[in-house]
Each structure stands twice: as structure tokens, then as C-alpha cells.
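ESCALATION

Customer reports they have been waiting on this structure for their group meeting. Please prioritize. Original submission:
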Amino acid sequence: MDLDSFRNYCLAKKGVTEELPFDDTTLVFKVMGKMFALCNLEQFEGASLKCDPERAIQLREAYEEIKGGYHLNKKHWNSIKANGRVGDQLFMELIDHSYDLVVSKLTKKDKELLQGM
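Update from on-call: job pushed to the front of the queue and completed.
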């Protein structure tokens, strides 16, 4: 997966915005103001995605390209290298999983706003 594919896939999801809140190179994707994905714009090598803690451990054991989230809470975030054994299909599935996790934790009001978009 390349940067354009990653970016387009994230932005196609309902209620997603992108911003650069940390610096000029860390692109962050949010749903209803809550972060679910981030990557480096200058050197796209992969992305960090939110993940269920049990699944995160399983993924790290199965793929050397998946590590605990770089500069993030390693219990809830994975950093995934692109273009390794983790193919585009799994990468997209993990983006979906991250997005769905964040949406599931939204307030009732935000969930209703999201459905109306």
C-alpha cells in the first residue's frame, strides 16, 4: 500500500478528517474528532492504527511487520509496515478495524451525527 492509497481509503470513510496536529510530517486521520490512523508524509513506510489489545498481540506474533505503536500506547496501537507480508487486503482490514473501534467508543450523540452524514 502506498501513501495515496492509504490516504484515499481513510478519507472515503464516513466522518473522517485529516490534519497535521503534531508537526508538518505526521498526517492524522480522525473520525468525529477522534484519532484512528496516522502516518509519516515524508517517508511513508506504513501507518499506526488502533487495535483491540488481544488482536494486537496476535498480529504482532504473526507478522514481523507489525509492532507496538511507535510513540503511542502499545496496548492499543500497532505500527504496520507497508509492502511486506502484510498485503493491501489485511492493511485495509486493519484500517477498518481501527475506524470501527473508535466509532464504537463515540458518544450516542456523535454516533447519531455520524449516521446522518
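Sent to customer with the following note: Residues 3-109 form a domain with the Aspartate Aminotransferase, domain 1 fold (CATH 3.90.1150.30).
Escalation resolved.
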